[in-house]
Amino acid sequence: MDLGLKGKRAIVTGGSKGIGRRVVDLLVAEGCDVGFCARNEADVVDALAVLSKGAARVVGGVADVTDDVVFRGWMKETISALGGLDILVANASSLVAGADEAAWQKGLDVDILGTVRAVEEAQPHLEASECGSIVSVSSTAAVNISGGIRAYSGVKAALISYMSGISTNLAGKGIRANTVSPGAVYFEGGVWDRNKTEDPARYEMAKKRNPMGRFCTPEEVANGVVFLASPAASYISGVNLVIDGAATTRIQF
Questions:
Q1: Residue 126 domain-assigned?
Q2: Distance CA 52, CA 190 (A)
Q3: pLDDT tens readout for residues 168-224
Q4: pTM of model > 0.90
Q5: Any idea what the CATH number is for the domain that residue 63 is in?
Q6: Domain coverage including residue 75
Q7: Which of 14, 113, 123 lies closest to 60, judged by CA?
Q8: Which of 7, 62, 159, 209 is least crowded, fewest Cβ atoms below 10 Å from its Cβ?
Q9: Low-confidence stretches of the chain (pLDDT beneath 50)
Q10: Which residues are catalytic?
């Protein structure tokens, strides 16, 4: 299938590793010019060293989505460098643990307000695009609560609600908005990679709990993100796509 992404311009937040990096890789492979940011300069440099070898234009930068001035400035500069914007992928996440006030604040600052800032800066340019699209990355923790109370679950649920509101209110301006909610994702250096060593019992339990008997890969999540972001999904908006190998024990509405 031709996704219609050749020559399109995209921005990915949290794009130096894990799911975000695989989204960047796939967008570039499909012919997109891509801008991405991350907080760690070494990660950005390493990613650029690989991505810059291809034909697509790739712009990487160090930016923290919680720093309003710096992040908005980075968005403006990157959109200018790309010559416009067709796609925004809001992937940056706090991955916050716990449920105290500090955890809630961190989750709100990164996952919610970081996404809001990105959307606000992107919106005028997406309106000017012929295929404006926003995809946020949430989690099955938002729709299938297990274990104790977690701020992470709450902020990820709010993210789905926010995207749903955008899909309704900006449809008339030619902007689609969708969410992808992955289950447990394994990649080197990620949360479940650390759990494999630090908490092997939890790691094995999570793997066995999945009907497919394995974790999701970042590439599998990226496939869903990039499809929803692409012109091939031109009539899909307001969707929360769950990618979890049938682990979510609820009927999707």
A1: yes
A2: 24
A3: 999 999 999 999 999 999 888 888 778 888 888 888 888 888 899 999 999 999 999
A4: yes
A5: 3.40.50.720
A6: 9-187+217-243
A7: 14
A8: 7
A9: none
A10: 138-139, 152, 156
